[in-house]
Amino acid sequence: xxxxxxxxxxxxxxxxxxxxxxxxxxxxxxxxxxxxxxxxxxxxxxxxxxxxxxxxxxxxxxxxxxxxxxxxxxxxxxxxxxxxxxxxxxxxxxxxxxxxxxxxxxxxxxxxxxxxxxxxxxxxxxxxxxxxxxxxxxxxxxxxxxxxxxxxxxxxxxxxxxxxxxxxxxxxxxxxxxxxxxxxxxxxxxxxxxxxxxxxxxxxxxxxxxxxxxxxxxxxxxxxxxxxxxxxxxxxxxxxxxxxxxxxxxxxxxxxxxxxxxxxxxxxxxxxxxxxxxxxxxxxxxxxxxxxxxxxxxxxxxxxxxxxxxxxxxxxxxxxxxxxxxxxxxxxxxxxxxxxxxxxxxxxxxxxxxxxxxxxxxxxxxxxxxxxxxxxxxxxxxxxxxxxxxxxxxxxxxxxxxxx
Length: 404
What we know:
Keywords: Membrane, Transmembrane, Transmembrane helix. Pfam families: Sulfotransfer_3. This is Sulfotransferase family protein. The chain is α/β, with parallel strands linked by helices. The protein has one domain: P-loop containing nucleotide triphosphate hydrolases (Rossmann fold, 3-Layer(aba) Sandwich). It has helices at about 5-15, 30-60, 80-90, 100-105, 110-125, 130-140, 170-175, 180-185, 185-190, 190-215, 230-235, 250-265, 275-285, 290-295, 310-315, 315-325, 330-345, 365-370, 370-375, and strands spanning about 70-75, 95, 220, 240-245, 305, 355, 385-390. The strands form two sheets. A five-stranded parallel beta sheet has the order 2-3-1-4-5, with helices on both faces. It has a two-stranded antiparallel ribbon with strand order 6-7. Helix 12 packs across helix 13 (about 275-285) and helix 16 packs antiparallel against helix 17. The longest helix is centred in the N-terminal third of the chain and has 31 residues, at about 30-60. The radius of gyration is 21 Å and the shape is globular. The chain starts with a helix and ends in a 16-residue tail after the last strand.
């Protein structure tokens, strides 16, 4: 059985009965999550797994679909992967990606077809359902959208689909325990059997997606968490192409802490939030060097290392180089879209800036810890006058007093 029920029972039990020994003490917010999680999660997965089982009866040919040259965008969090992902996805003639509604509520072919039918009827009736959903999202995701544009109709990290087998790195936000550390250090800490089971489930999810949204298209995915899955990606998808984005750690790390802290605070309240964010940051520090090391022996037509600065300042040139490197055809239509995007990029200025010091860190510490990255990419060693971000909501402030 692919579903990791033992891990679910262990971390949920620890949350209830051994919370004093963990980094997630019981608070009102935490208790509410722990009460709501089991019935909602079990109901969702009961429906999902029934539908996944029916796929093997009604649409069994999906298993024979060839996942042709899938493209995986990896790299340390907050390094421009979302920007590149959504830019490449505009080339809809070649690429297809999962959106959040599909990842959460439609991993099966049966569910995808059902919700697409609902969407068609909604459009015929004047979009009342989608209008309600968009309004709800605007209210519900008001804070997180200051950091990352999220929504059911937006493309998202399909690492989330592994929640359906309780094997996603995102579970660390809900259950910040050492039990889940192997999911963050996937290739090096998960057993070969566990890696094979998880990646087989993931491949089946991609095949189901292609069955509905384009059997001849290239699957396009972006997941910072897949930075720890390079070996597994190569084993599961022999023709996979990987794009690794590298950003100056002095810029990426404070932005990543801001995002990580938000994820933690969605389900928890910590006595020292910066310490908790730093703890997970220590876990994912190897997401910088690991993909670079693993991609070294890969052939050039299956990999590309992208400098964040080049991506942001010259997206059209970067994508053109990327297509040449990876062997994709750049259509005139998409070339025009890239030119428009390049114009917008030149006129964009972020309004959100903050420094490492507000997270209890120093530029010297970062340069020392990531010396290899600074040397290889010749990144400046000095912190700029404020670091660009996608939004600072204050969730990473260091609290040293107890929080009720």
